[in-house]
Amino acid sequence: MGQRSSRAQPASSAEETAANRAEALRQKWVRDQRELLVQTMRFSQVDRPCPKCKKMQRAEEFETHLVCCLTKPALEFNTDVLEADQGECIICYEDLMAGQCIARLPCLCIFHEECLKDWFKVKEECPSHPESDE
Ligand SMILES: [Zn+2]
Ligand SMILES: [Zn+2]
Ligand SMILES: [Zn+2]
């Protein structure tokens, strides 16, 4: 007596909710994956800049370029203290003066050391001699 089955059993309803939630999550995951795949495919067909050198790459060459670019040795520079004035630093447009710390690239261009370090954060190439793929 008094045992009524109309009452929902807490255990099974909690399980059901968990199962529903899991299923909803799974469906969302599948949707997300599909969306991501579509985006990736669409993305891989458009030209876009290389994240390393920022140069625009054609879609079909992007991956090849990226591999080359990421494995390319970094551009090295020597640092030095200038012994005589050397004209303008083309990064900051101020004069390179005797006694200042400068950086010299393999192409023999010189810049203030700090200027070149800042420049390299954006582009690792000589400001006067940008590499060109053309
Ligand atoms: Zn690159
Ligand atoms: Zn400078
Ligand atoms: Zn140079």
Automatic annotation (TrEMBL):
Membrane-related topology note: Peripheral membrane protein
Name of one Pfam family that matches: zf-RING_2
Domain RING-type: residue ranges: 89-129
Reaction catalysed by this enzyme: S-ubiquitinyl-[E2 ubiquitin-conjugating enzyme]-L-cysteine + [acceptor protein]-L-lysine = [E2 ubiquitin-conjugating enzyme]-L-cysteine + N(6)-ubiquitinyl-[acceptor protein]-L-lysine
Transmembrane regions: none
Organism per entry: Oikopleura dioica (Tunicate)
GO MF: ubiquitin protein ligase activity; zinc ion binding
Top-level EC class: transferase
Subcellular localization: Endosome; Lysosome; Membrane
Cellular-component GO terms for this entry: endosome; lysosome; membrane
Record key words, sorted: Endosome, Lipoprotein, Lysosome, Membrane, Metal-binding, Myristate, Transferase, Ubl conjugation pathway, Zinc, Zinc-finger
EC number(s) stated in the UniProt entry for this protein: 2.3.2.27
Entry protein name: RING-type E3 ubiquitin transferase
Record carries keyword Zinc-finger: yes
Primary localization class, coarse: other
PANTHER family on file: E3 UBIQUITIN-PROTEIN LIGASE ZNRF1-LIKE PROTEIN (PTHR46661), RING-TYPE DOMAIN-CONTAINING PROTEIN (PTHR46661:SF4)
